[in-house]
Amino acid sequence: MTRVKVCGFTREADLEAAIAAGVDAVGLIAGVTVDTPREIDLEVASRLAATVPPLVSSVLVTMPGDAGEARRRIERVRPDAVQLHGLDPVDVAALADAPADVIAVVEPTDPELDAYAETADALLVDSIDAEGGGGTGETHDWERTREIVTGLDVPVVLAGGLTPENVSTAVETVDPFAVDVASGVEREGGVKDYDAVERFVERATRARVAP
Ligand SMILES: O=C(O)c1ccccc1N[C@@H]1O[C@H](COP(=O)(O)O)[C@@H](O)[C@H]1O
Predict the structure, then answer these.
(1) Which CATH topology does 3-206 take?
(2) What are the structural domain ranges in the chain?
(3) Quick one: pLDDT at residue 208?
(4) What's the complex ipTM?
(5) I need a labelling partner for 202 at 20 to 30 A (CA). Which of 64, 90, 150, 172 fits?
(6) Which atom of ligand 1 is nearest to the CA of 161?
(7) Stated pTM of the model
(8) Where is the N-(5'phosphoribosyl) anthranilate isomerase (PRAI) domain (predicted)?
(9) Which residues contact 111 (CB under 8 A, 6 or more apart)?
């Protein structure tokens, strides 16, 4: 069954609603260098991460300048996992002993996919913007991401432009370890649409990969 991450919470009530809807992971965006309505400061991220119950993963989504900054943010927020935008495989490898699983964000055509797969605990394949940020609301070539899933021995998370309306097709096409959504389940920037979150979770987990 495909796991589900919903990302970009700014309000505790939205986090609670998503957990009640059955998400496997919740993303908290802090320390990013792109303009987004979903960014919160590290202190708020730390407070929200502490509310996430056992058996649901908290994920710090961040764009640090280097591994040292990433480590400081992990120690401050104490997430179960950290989703890193913009670090190279060497910096990702330097976080192998950090107290969080490491998810490296890549685009489907990244020439260093193999190196990231060897150093990170999971890859998140996203339609990232020129600055390496996510939250674009854009899909990418899912066939290419399917090739990544079949070609690499690392959990692959599919992100980028997913919605309750397209997530079934995305899962059937890509067969990812998990799917990840931010803007596609919002009624306004940074505010989640609870019905959309429920429909996203239901359709993502019900979808079956074509044999
Ligand atoms: O959501 C954002 O604004 C964001 C900003 C900077 C880094 C990551 C961000 N979000 C990540 O991008 C994916 C895809 O977003 P979307 O579903 O296309 O809106 C999101 O799930 C986060 O992991």
Answers:
(1) TIM Barrel (3.20.20)
(2) 3-206
(3) 84
(4) 0.98
(5) 150
(6) 18
(7) 0.97
(8) 4-202
(9) none
